[in-house]
Amino acid sequence: MKKEEAVMEKIISLCKRRGFIFQGSEIYGGLAGTWDYGPLGVMLKNNVKALWWKRFVDTRDDMYGVDAAILMNQNAWKASGHVAGFSDPLVECEKCKKRFRADHLEDKKKCPECGGKLGAEKQFNMMFKTNVGATHDENSISYLRPETAQGMFVNFKNVIDSLHPKLPFGLAQIGKAFRNEIAPRDFLFRSREFEQMEIEYFVHPDNWKETFEHFVGQVHGWTKDIGLESAHVHELEIPDGDRAHYSKRTIDFEFDYPFGKKELYGLAYRTDFDLKAHTGLSKVDLTYYDEDTKERFAPHCIEPSFGVDRTVLAILSDAYTEDELGGEVRSYLKLSPNVAPYRVAVFPLLKNKPVLVEKAREVYAELKKVFGAKVAFDDNGNIGKRYRRQDEIGTPYCVTIDFDTVEKDAGVTVRNRDTGVQERVAVKDLVNKIG
Ligand code: GAP
Known about the structure:
Blueprint (H helix, E strand, L loop, with lengths): L2 H15 L3 E3 L11 E3 L1 H20 L4 E3 L5 E3 H7 L1 H4 L1 E6 L6 E3 L20 E4 L3 E3 L9 E4 L4 H5 L2 H8 L5 E10 L14 E11 L4 H18 L7 E5 L11 E9 L2 E12 L1 H10 L5 E3 L4 E3 L2 E8 H12 E6 L2 E6 L10 E5 L5 H18 L3 E3 L5 H11 L3 E5 L1 H5 L4 E5 L5 E4 L4 H5 L1
Parallel strand pairs: 3-10, 20-21, 20-22
Antiparallel strand pairs: 1-2, 4-9, 5-6, 5-7, 8-9, 10-11, 11-17, 12-13, 13-14, 14-17, 15-16, 18-19, 22-23, 23-24
The structure holds glycyl-adenosine-5'-phosphate (GAP).
């Protein structure tokens, strides 16, 4: 096993062991390309989504949230170009019948599994098709959305008519997207059901360049918010011919995953492609009227697109650390406090001493007033075991209540996850220390 594969195996095993992420439908042997988040994974993922919403929506005056339906009228996907062109090249082995993504193969003639002859390359549409209602005919066809973006374009006029925002402004959405990937792989990296955090930012056509640059900076700022190592995030300018059909400029933000440098996020200049395409098919006017300049035009769109699950995977990959502490080898998650499921864990030194448990519960309740659900209470096993457990789930601080806390009012012991260093801190100073 190569070193990088070993690291991925360790991360996947930690995720299962500690309740972050499980294989989808595991008790039935799984369902390829699906993953279920467990209690700690949900906390980590919710922290990511809340931080994103705060940075890109709540703290700005020019962003509006949307939460559109996953099922959309099939015409939305005809207009967007997905029905005709959202496909990957597929080849099938004539011998074992296995199917592969042609652009992932070095030898496009020979089956990598059985050595058999591969058939001709075909285009495979990645949208999950379904029928809405009891009739199964052409008119009842719908698709699970392969991107959240179109839910925003089709609501452009609704937002203009109801909130009357002035250009420039953006629509933001977090939600599920579905792609019937030919070859789901690399844990959360390429799955068939995943979540996106997307912004469609509308500007006057003359102003697209500066807005594009603004979002380049915002993406880097965001990766720092969630604690990714700046040196692990790279920009890749996508050349003409390789970009999606709607884009005149795209930068992919790549990340150094354990399995190599791969796409984390995308930033695209979608021009007026989508608004014009929806106007064309729906016959609804999706232009904007500028009261000041008396100009009517289709705004152009800059789209920063963030995969939630790729974010979680990047965070876990960067955080996974093996070192030696106090003569013991340990593996732990060096998570930023911004995203860690718990910011702090509180322990009574001994679980069978009511005086310690009572004081620990008191400190726990006080910390919960400030940090809410991000405070854990742990009295299972000895202190060493509790430290190891909290290290593995990435809790930055552990607070222990001992006899000196209750008998001498001598504060509590605060232990730092990364260094293992312990210090005495007065109870009244705890929030400052941890915050
Ligand atoms: N609206 C533009 C769009 O969807 P994309 O590059 O196809 O662009 C955007 O996807 C982001 O969604 C990617 O950068 C990645 O973070 C995430 N993503 C795409 N396909 C994915 C998959 N199969 N599994 C997990 N995340 C995926």
